[in-house]
Every structure is written in structure tokens, then in C-alpha cells.
Design goal:
The complex is a heterodimer. Chain A is mainly alpha-helical. Chain A contains 16 helices and no strands. Chain A is flat. By secondary structure, chain B is mainly alpha-helical. Helices cover 76% and strands 0% of the residues of chain B. Classes of the chains: A mainly alpha, B mainly alpha.
């Protein structure tokens, strides 16, 4: 009797029932890593060329605002005698003599202003101020707005109604008028505080103008953030995991911090990123009106404002800060749009 | 409907009251009161001045007096321009600003709506991209940059348009264009996205399917629905034009309320700052209430509570 099977036999083939080999097992595994929220978002962000270009521009501006000034041969308040009103890449006579004598003189890349201050470093420091205002003000707004909005949304009912009525009223207040009014008046009490009360001397080092801008922005602009966070929380608190957390005895503050705010992080990031350019926008507007940071500290708005008088002879003095500020605002706007497209679950697919 | 209108008006009054109260107390914070200027007045003069303006009374009474005057529409007297009533200053200055502002609003609507609609119809083509590029930049560039660049190119370099004052129709071109720049960009973006939204609706397909010409479908169905979000933007737009006017009027030296306001900030002329703030807040809040009510009337789909 031979082992050969009749091709028409229904007899089962024993080898088919052997345990699977390791290599076979591997073949059955779906070979894709699970894609986390962040990975998915960043993958989509990377595809967005405009957003990546904006990110690059922001990084370049940040490096020149925060790092380069430390190594720059001139400082923003240094008045160089004899070098007043130089044009782009020009040297004054004394500087030319020094160059002839073999000394190396760092060129004034964008010339100097009427007091002999190097414009390049002033613009870099000015963009530092603008960026600081944008980022810190947005961070304050993020903290206040998300705390307020999540509490109102989570507790709901009467708490929500009263808290959101207050938001509605602040929302209808003409913000720019109140901001101007506050910046005009806040300087005095802040100065009093800095000069007379111990523990508040740091206000003078940071600058009264800057502090009053932070105070003013955080007093008025958190309402938009609060509304957005509240609507997110209202949606999220109905989810099963919140019920589960409650059933396990988690406290309200833990649920808000660990579950509700963590799950709305995408919205928080997008809203904060878009808040930065609008804060910078308002700051430059205030500085332009002469209400922003105080001299000799430069800000892009005040640099542009000072340049208007000499616009016919020195147009570059206006154009340089104008271009930088527009570039900063544009890049943050585009990056924010890109982040929203990448991280907003509603816009998926 | 009536309920909604009343509710909206009441909330407007509450906001205005809050603004007025805040204004009063902020001004009270300023030490030395409004008479703090370079030339410090003698003690006697100061006392006389304080008595004259009622500044020697307790805060509560000052506040009540201030509110009483406000309800009567009296905004007080300017300090730097001796003897000039804030009301009179507003009366002479405001029409100038209103004229420019109104022109800018009309320009923004007349340019923004067609630009956004055409961009939506040519979605993804070069024309759409161009308009989106311009309007994205238009939103990012601050008003003072737009104004100064316009002034530099058309006034200083090309010398074809006057750069200051308002003496001839030509003088209006640059300030109005500068003022309308941001709202135009905003409206065209808004219009594009809402037009795209409307074009994808079922009723548009129905309109085309029943044999309506493209032109008619566009104007009778699409445009009417797509323009609604622009109506909601009218309120914020007025606020934007107002703030824009501070910068534009300062740059083009226009004798309007905006440059007056900026001047009063530099002069620290507190009654004038307060009066102008309250007047402008009143204007903005009223406009917002009107726009909100108009919006609900125009769009019957929004339920009125």
C-alpha cells in the first residue's frame, strides 16, 4: 500500500493541522503601529507646506530675537556718537577711520536712528518684546480661560448660567476702548505699587508698560477662550469615561484636570496659537499710539511709529519693523490654521 | 421677537452702564486727578480747581454726579483745551470720522463680497489662490503698516495723491483705502467660505436641476444665503474701523474724532478721554444691538427666544 493519496479522496490532509510556525504567525499580525492622536496630527501638519514654512519663519525670528542679541556687538540702547542717521550698511567717518587703521567694525546692517542707535539690534529686541507679549499674554489667557470655561461647563446649571452671563457682558464691551483706557490709567497705580510696596520691585525691572499690557489683555481676552473651552467640556462630560471616573470616586477637580482638559488639548493648542498673533497685533497697535512699552525699550509698533516722521528720507526705518511684524503675525496665523486642520477632530478626512 | 429685542436692548444698557462705571473708577485711580501736568499748579489753584469740578467730594457723590450728568448727555469739559465742552468737540470732530468710516464700510462691502464670491466659484484655480493670498496678508498686516506704506508709495514716491488733510475728494482716497483694507480682506475670506458652504447645499442642486440658469441660481439662491455671515460681521467691522481710524487719522492728519482721541491720550486730557470712550462705546454697543436684531429678522431660520 503506498502513501499516495487519491486526488479525489475526501480524506483530510494531516499536515494542514500542524501548529502554525512562528514565521506564519508573524505574517498574520497587522503590521501597523497604532497611531496616537499626536502622531496623527503631526503627520498631517508635516504635509501642510504652508504651516511648516511658517514654523520655520517663527523659529528663525525667535532665534534672532532671543539668542542673537546676546552676542550682538551693539546693544539696543547704546547711542553711538557720530553715527547718527546712517543708511543701510553705511559707516560713520570715525568708524571708517577705525577700519582704515585695521580695526574691524561690525556694520550697521540696517543703519542707525537719529540718536545713533543700531536699527538691526533694535528690531531684534523689538521682536523679542512682541513675541514675549504674544506668548505670555496668550499663556495667561489660556490659564484663566480654560479654568473658567471648564468650571462653568462641568458644573452646568445655575453656575454655568451666572458665569456665562458675566462672559457675555465682557464680550459685548468694546475691547479696544477699554484696553486703551486701562493702559492710560494703570500706569500710575502700578508705579505706586512698584515704588512703595516691598515685594513688587520686579515690576520696574520688567517694565510698567509690559505689565500693564499683560494685565489688560488677561482681563479682557480670556472670555473667548472660556467660551471655547466650555463648549468642549459640555460635549466631553457626557462621555462614558467621565461617568466611569465618577463611579470610581474621582473628584471634580481631578476629572476636569485629567479628563476634560486633557481631552480638549487640541482645541486649547489651536486657540492659543491663534491668540498669539492677535495679542501681538494689539500690542503693536498700542505701542504705535504710544501706550505700549516705555522708551528706550523698543517695540515693533513704537519703532514704526518713530519712523513715520522721516518716511521720505529713511523709508527703510519704517519698512523693516513693518515687514517683521507682518511676518510674525502672518506666520502665527498660518501655523494656527495648519494646527487646526491637523488637530481638530471635526475637520478629519 | 419683541422679547428678544427688549432683552438685547437691556443687555446693551447694562454693558454701557458697566463701561461708564469702569471709566469713572479708572479715572479716579489716576493720582493727583486730571490736573497733573508739567506745570504743577499752586496749592490754592489746585484747591479752587478741585472745588470747581467737584473733585473734593467723596467718591460716591462724585460718581452719582457723574452718572447724573451722563444721563443728561453731558460729557464734561476738556482740560487742555480750556472751556471746550467734550460734547462740542465730539460734535465737530465726529462727522469727519463718520464720513470716512462710512466710505470705508461701503468700499469693504463692495469689494469684499464680489472678491470672495468669485474666489469661491473658481475654487482651487489661480484666481482663488491670488485672492486668498491677498486676503490672508490683509488680515496679518497691521493698519499702521498699511497706512504708512500706502502713504509712502502714492504720496511720497509717486507723488500722485495728497498725504494729509481732507480738503479735496482726492484726499479721501488714501485714508479710506487704508481703513477699508482689513475689513475687505476679512469679508472676502468670510464670503468665500460661506459661498463654498452654500454651493454644496442641496437646494443649489435642486435649483440647477429644475433648469434655473447659472446666473439666476447664483444671484437668487447662493448669494442671498451666503451673505448672511457677512451681516454678523458688520458689528465687529464697525469696531475695527473705529480702532483703525485712530491710526489712520493720526497718520494722515485728519481732523476727526480718532486723531482727537489719540491726541487726548498723549495730552493725558482725562475728561476728553473718558467722554470720547463713552461716546464711542455707546455708538458701538448701539450698532451691535441693531446688527444683532437685523440679523435675526433677515434670517428666519434662527429661532428667536
Amino acid at each position: 500500500m503506498n502513501n499516495k493519496k487519491n486526488p479525489f479522496s475526501f480524506q483530510l490532509n494531516v499536515s494542514d493541522f500542524l501548529p502554525a510556525e512562528e514565521s506564519e504567525k508573524q505574517g498574520m499580525v497587522v503590521m501597523r503601529e497604532s497611531v496616537s492622536f499626536w502622531k496623527d496630527g503631526f503627520r498631517r501638519l508635516r504635509k501642510n507646506k504652508l504651516a511648516m514654512a511658517s514654523l520655520f519663519v517663527i523659529i528663525v525670528i525667535m532665534i534672532s530675537a532671543f539668542i542673537i542679541p546676546a552676542f550682538y556687538p551693539y546693544s539696543y540702547e547704546q547711542q553711538i556718537r557720530g553715527s547718527e542717521n546712517l543708511g543701510i550698511m553705511e559707516y560713520s567717518e570715525s568708524e571708517l577711520e577705525r577700519i582704515e587703521a585695521g580695526e574691524k567694525v561690525f556694520p550697521h546692517l540696517l543703519g542707525t536712528d537719529s540718536l545713533g542707535r543700531d536699527l538691526m539690534i533694535r528690531i531684534m529686541v523689538g521682536s523679542k518684546i512682541s513675541l514675549l507679549v504674544g506668548i505670555i499674554a496668550s499663556a495667561i489667557i489660556l490659564v484663566i480661560g480654560s479654568a473658567y470655561g471648564s468650571i462653568a461647563g462641568y458644573f452646568g446649571g445655575k453656575v454655568d448660567m451666572i458665569m456665562m452671563r458675566a462672559v457675555d457682558i465682557i464680550y459685548t464691551v468694546p475691547d479696544i476702548l477699554i484696553i486703551i483706557l486701562l493702559s492710560v490709567t494703570l500706569k500710575y497705580p502700578l508705579k505706586e505699587l512698584a515704588d512703595n510696596v516691598t515685594g513688587f520691585e520686579w515690576i520696574n525691572t520688567v517694565g510698567i508698560g509690559l505689565i500693564s499690557i499683560f494685565v489688560v489683555f488677561s482681563l479682557l481676552y480670556w472670555v473667548g477662550m472660556a467660551r471655547i473651552v466650555r463648549s468642549q467640556v459640555l460635549m466631553l462630560k457626557e462621555q462614558e469615561y467621565v461617568v466611569a471616573a465618577k463611579a470610581l470616586g474621582a473628584s471634580d477637580s481631578r476629572i476636569i484636570k485629567k479628563h476634560l482638559l486633557t481631552n480638549s488639548i487640541g482645541t486649547l493648542i489651536v486657540t492659543t496659537t491663534l491668540q498669539i498673533p492677535s495679542s501681538i497685533f494689539t500690542e503693536s497697535f498700542l505701542s504705535f499710539l504710544g501706550l505700549g512699552v516705555s522708551a528706550p525699550m523698543p517695540s515693533l509698533g513704537s519703532l514704526a511709529s518713530q519712523a513715520i516722521g522721516g518716511i521720505s528720507s529713511y523709508p527703510h526705518r519704517l519698512m523693516a519693523p513693518a515687514v517683521v511684524i507682518s511676518l510674525i503675525i502672518l506666520s502665527f496665523n498660518l501655523l494656527g490654521d495648519g494646527l487646526r486642520d491637523a488637530f481638530d477632530p471635526k475637520l478629519k478626512n | 421677537m419683541g422679547g428678544y429685542i427688549i432683552k438685547r436692548i437691556i443687555s446693551g444698557i447694562v454693558t454701557l452702564f458697566l463701561v461708564a462705571t469702569l471709566t469713572f473708577f479708572l479715572m479716579y485711580l489716576v493720582p493727583g486727578g486730571p490736573f497733573l501736568s508739567e506745570k504743577a499748579p499752586s496749592e490754592q489753584t489746585l484747591k479752587a480747581l478741585q472745588e470747581k469740578y467737584g473733585l473734593d467730594q467723596p467718591v460716591g457723590i462724585q460718581y452719582l454726579n457723574y452718572m447724573k450728568r451722563l444721563i443728561r448727555g453731558d460729557l464734561g469739559t476738556s482740560l487742555k483745551m480750556r472751556g471746550q465742552e467734550v460734547n462740542d468737540i465730539i460734535r465737530t470732530r465726529f462727522p469727519v470720522s463718520a464720513k470716512i468710516g462710512l466710505m470705508a464700510v461701503i468700499l469693504a462691502i463692495a469689494v469684499g463680497i464680489p472678491m470672495g464670491s468669485v474666489a469661491a466659484l473658481h475654487r482651487g484655480k489661480w484666481f482663488d489662490r491670488l485672492i486668498m493670498l491677498i486676503s490672508t496678508m490683509g488680515i496679518a498686516i497691521p493698519g499702521f503698516v498699511v497706512s504708512t506704506v500706502l502713504m509712502f508709495f502714492f504720496g511720497v514716491r509717486l507723488k500722485i495723491l495728497p498725504t494729509f488733510g481732507l480738503t479735496s475728494p482726492l484726499h479721501y482716497i488714501l485714508p479710506v483705502a487704508a481703513l477699508a483694507f482689513y475689513p475687505t480682506a476679512y469679508i472676502s475670506r468670510l464670503m468665500r467660505s460661506s459661498m463654498l458652504d452654500v454651493l454644496g447645499q442641496d437646494y443649489m442642486r435642486t435649483a440647477r436641476a429644475k433648469g434655473l440658469g447659472q446666473f439666476k441660481a447664483l444671484f437668487k439662491h447662493a448669494l442671498r444665503n451666503a451673505v448672511l455671515p457677512v451681516v454678523t460681521y458688520l458689528g465687529p467691522m464697525l469696531a475695527g474701523i473705529l480702532t483703525g481710524s485712530f491710526v489712520v487719522e493720526k497718520i494722515f492728519t485728519i481732523p476727526g474724532l480718532g486723531s482727537q482721541f489719540v491726541g487726548s491720550i498723549t495730552d493725558r486730557d482725562y475728561p476728553l478721554i473718558m467722554g470720547t470712550t463713552i461716546f464711542l462705546a455707546f455708538l458701538l454697543i448701539t450698532m451691535n444691538v441693531i446688527v444683532d436684531i437685523a440679523y435675526k429678522i433677515i434670517d428666519p431660520r434662527i429661532n428667536l427666544k
